Each structure stands twice: as C-alpha cells, then as structure tokens.
Amino acid sequence: MDIRKIDDRLSVAPQIAIADLERLKQAGFRAVICNRPDGEAPDQPSFEEMRQAAEKAGIEIRHQPVTSGKVTDEDAQAFARLMAELPGPVLAYCRTGTRSATLWALSQAGKRPLTEILATAKAAGYDLSAVARRIANRGRTPEDATDAHHAVVIVGGGAAGIATAASLKKRKPDLDVAIIEPSDVHYYQPGWTLVGGGVFRPEQTAHLEARLIPDGVKWIKAAVVAFEPERNAVILEGCRVVTYDRLVVCPGLKLDWGAIEGLEATLGKNGVTSNYRYDLAPYTWELVQGLKRGRAIFTQPPMPIKCAGAPQKAMYLSADHWYRTGVLKDIEVNFNNAGGVLFGVKDYVPALMEYVKKYDARLNFFHNLVAVDGPARKAIFEVKEPEKEPRRVEMEFDMMHVCPPQTAPDFIRVSPLADAAGWVDVDQSTLRHKRFDNIWSLGDVMNAPNAKTAAAARKQAPVVAANIVADIEGRAPVADYDGYGSCPLTVERGKIVLAEFGYGGVLKPSFPKVLLDGTRPSRLAWMLKEKILPPIYWHAMLKGREWLAEPEPHKIAAE
C-alpha cells in the first residue's frame, strides 16, 4: 500500500487491494472512502467486494464514486459530509489518489489558506495547482474566466519588478505592462544596515509605491495566491484572475521569523533586533548606543539569504561604535554563523578578518539559531560541526541581532514554477523558466546560484527586458546574466570592503583597481554606499536608466 498522510484525520492512497483492509485496520484506520467508480479497470475490485471485506475486518467503508477529471463542487461537499460522519482516521482512495486529494482540498477551501492546502497536498505527492482557482473561490467553480489581460504581467513591485517594467517601457514604450503588488510602501532595503548603524534615518529608505510605478504601467494592487501556467493565468486573492502573454515573477523572498522558536514574541524588545525589518533597524541603533558591557550576538542562518553580508555588516558597524566610544573592551562580540566560512568569496576574507581581529569578535561557525527566550535573554543554537554529533548550546546575551531563515514565498513554493527546493526554476543565463517559455524570473525568488542582492536585480532587469522584447519580436534570447552581485561590507563607519562577484565567485569589479580595490577597505566605497547608490536606485534603476547595467550579449547570439 502507498499510504500518503494528509493530516491526522485523513490519508489518501492509490487503488488498494481487498487484503489491504485487514492491514489498514491493524494500522489504526477506522474508515475507508472509495472514490473510484466500479469498472474503471478490469483488475479493479468492485465496491461490493471491498464492502464485504471491510465488514469482515471491522472497518467502515463508503462509496463516493467520482469520474476521473470531473470532480464537481457537489462531489467536494459530499466528501466533506462523509469526513464529518465517519470515525477517523480515514483512508480515501481512487486509481492514483489524486481524486481523493482533490476532494479533500476543495472541501478545505475557505477553512485553510490556499497555500497551506496546496503545500499539504504537495507534501503528500499531489500537485493540485490545476484546481487552485477553485480552492481560491472557496471550493466552487468560478463563473468568470478572466478579470484582466495584459501583454506582460510582472508579479512583484519591489526593486526587480519596477526595474524590469521600466526597462521594458524604455525598449518598447507602447507595450502593455502590469505590475501586481499589494504593498503601498516601497523600501530601499540596502539602506537598513545604515539605519541600524545610525547613519540613515528610516524614512530615507521608504517611498510610496504609487510614485514609483513607471508611466504607462498598470498597477494591480493585490496579492497573488497561485499560478496556472498552462492557462497563462495568475490567480489573485478573492479568486480574481489575470491572464498574460508573458509573465515575470519577482515577488522577493519570505523572511521566516516563525522558524525560530520564541523569536516573533521578543522581536523589538528584550535586546533582540534585526536590520532585516524597517521597524526594527532603529532599535538596533538604540541597542548599540545603550550597550556598555556584556555579550552581543550576531546570527546568520543557513543559505540562501538576502544579502549574505548583512549579518556581519551589523556586527562591524556595532563593534566600530563600541570601539570609538571606548566600551568595546567590556563587550564580548560573537558572530554565530550556521555556515562554515565568514564570506563565500575567499578574496574578500583577509580584509574582513583584519576587522574580526580588531574588534576581537568570536567566530562561531556551524551555529544555527533555533530558539530564543527573550525575557531570560537566552538563545539556543544547534551546532552541526563536520564529523561530530549535532548538539545544542545555550548562550546568554545582552543584545542579539538576528538574521531570520529565508525561503521562497509560500505561493511560489507550492506552484508549478518551483524547483524541488521551492525557488522559481530558471536558466541561469537568460533567466527564462526552464519549462514555461513565456515566463521569466529575477531577484531573490529564482534559483540561479548568485547572491541575492539589489545590485544583482539591477543587472538582471535589463537582461529580462531585452529577452522579453526579443521574444515578442520572434527572436531568440539576446542577453545573458553573468551572476553579478555586489555586497558593500560596512567594516567601519566611513570604510567599506566592496565585494563584487559573479557566478563561481569570479570577481566582477565595476571600477579600475587603481581607483577602487574592492578587496581592501575604502572610503570611496563608503561614499558610493552612502551618497551615490541610493540616488542611483531611486532615479536610475527604477527609471530604466541602465548605468553600468547594460546586458551582456547572449553567448549563442554573439557567436
């Protein structure tokens, strides 16, 4: 038997045999639902045969035959009634289990979030994206097929989405483009490190979304809940449907605060902060100014994360303030990293290690934060060192800066667009989806092996725009992304190690070495971070001005 658990009350399975009923009884099942009509296959036991065997085994059984591919709204309601009547746990079966899983999913519509329903089914081995629209419509078949249609639909109005829309309109001004984005406020997230270091004010990093949408681009203010790529459709909350000729997916990633036990309850108090949130970055600076002695912990979760250098940027700026104010000697600085290296590109590590030594910071590798007791000011780390048994260690703290675990958004992870790890599956050069030719993805949500930074999105947007325009004109891809990412590592107030690299850790400096050596701390790099990059973001990247971001020619096209 191939039993696939849905929840504590229901499991589903492909066709079971008569002899399996006794085994089900022994396994603790109290009821069975057969969702397969009699006579679908010559080797299929009839329901009457199954009923007799179930009676002999002392297990209840019901017959709710559903034709393959034709699960009606009434079928789902009938399944819900059966589940309410029968004692659990229940096993439902059909030829493959898909009908039974679909009936369960539709019966849960309106009772659980759509993403939770799809994720539960996917974990059991069933892709129910084909009925996502019905689930979003509270289990009922929608009457209206489409609410809107656009030539290009962009999911996500962050840095990647707006930059792509601007680059598209620059190349093809009359192109019909729409951005789907639920947020009213757009944030310059690279600035939050400087907010946490007392350099920027929070309001410097926020603009109204409406003022950033490029001219001529339609803003659909809604949240996406699912995709139907075979039908060129995006499903919005409330079961609104937007169809497209071409789709760009760039909603960013999910900061999974809830993955660390006790963290959400103590964020913003008890000395626990994070520069990964707009409202918490000012608390970081408050804590840094207030700490005169004790232990400070800075955490980094397993990769991938948004801006891999940000956790240690917070450490360097904090320690620099304590160094300048003469209290560092009384503060124990700890960098607890779930990984095994300080930074993934080795060329920048020597310069960083000089500052680790300057601040007398303790590097605790393979330490992953799993729980926080805020009132007690205690943190629990799971330590998984190579060739050693995993263990847990408890550390007290006076201040802790947390970088949360990060995943693709739920509606991405359960969609047909995702790879096995949940990220949008793209060709790393053209950024085109590997299975759906009219879909592209960029930014933090896709699975190319590059650093997840705003600088990466700045390079990716022109590549996606150029390739979409080429596709519209019937041409092959014309542009490639080389994996470029940039991480300005703020090692002290006034100096930065400007890490710029591409796929495989290959260095990709934007300036001649005589002007700016990215492997060494530089005041020029600090000026770039503080004074030049924010205006470039607001007034160039988001406006389709591709300064130092022109796409490279596609390798095949170049040949």
From TrEMBL:
Domain FAD/NAD(P)-binding: start-end pairs: 151-264
Record-linked Pfam families: BLH_phosphatase (PF04273), Pyr_redox_2 (PF07992)
A single GO molecular function term of this UniProt record: FAD binding
Domain of life from the UniProt record: Bacteria
GO BP annotations, alphabetical order: sulfide oxidation, using sulfide:quinone oxidoreductase
Cofactor section: FAD
Ranges where the Beta-lactamase hydrolase-like protein phosphatase-like domain occurs: 2-110
Key word Flavoprotein present: yes
Alphabetized SUPFAM superfamilies for the sequence: (Phosphotyrosine protein) phosphatases II, FAD/NAD(P)-binding domain
Keywords attached to this entry: FAD, Flavoprotein, Oxidoreductase, Quinone, Transit peptide
Name recorded for this polypeptide: Sulfide:quinone oxidoreductase
